[in-house]
Amino acid sequence: MYELSTYDDDQSVSLKEIAKNQGLSLSYLEQLFSTLKKERLVISQRGAKGGYKLAKPPQKISVGDIIRAVEGPIEFSECVGGAENYECNKSSMCVTKDVWQEVNDSVNSVIDNITLQDLLDKNQKKVKE
């Protein structure tokens, strides 16, 4: 996703090119981008100049969006992550539940407030230094 954000909005990038640049297998990227496409984070284009591009501007895509698209919800404990059918008979007196909820909320807040544009900007600063 970061690599896609380095290209112009109208420019599609092939998975082969991304695989080569990032040292990743093409089959892994195909699976990954299939998921990203379903989650509407990327758009695919067919043809000679086909490939993938971001579905939204980099400032509208957070690290949290990407992680949740690929991995699912960030949950540090079943009792705070909203796991289906999870029942804990000790939840009313659990001392650590609030701690895990705070950790969960904090991590989600951080990753939701870092965008691809932020990563681009940070990299630009590093390049200039």
From TrEMBL:
Under Gene3D superfamilies, the record lists:
Winged helix-like DNA-binding domain superfamily/Winged helix DNA-binding domain (1.10.10.10)
Molecular-function GO terms, alphabetical = DNA binding; DNA-binding transcription factor activity
Entry keyword set: DNA-binding
Residue stretches spanning the membrane: none
| Pfam families assigned | Rrf2 (PF02082)
Classify the source by domain of life. Bacteria
Q: Which GO terms describe its cellular component?
A: cytosol
Q: Kindly indicate where the leader peptide sits in this chain.
A: none
Q: Which PANTHER family match?
A: HTH-TYPE TRANSCRIPTIONAL REGULATOR ISCR, WINGED HELIX-TURN-HELIX TRANSCRIPTIONAL REGULATOR, RRF2 FAMILY
* Entries under NCBIfam families matching the protein: rrf2_super
Protein's recorded name: BadM/Rrf2 family transcriptional regulator
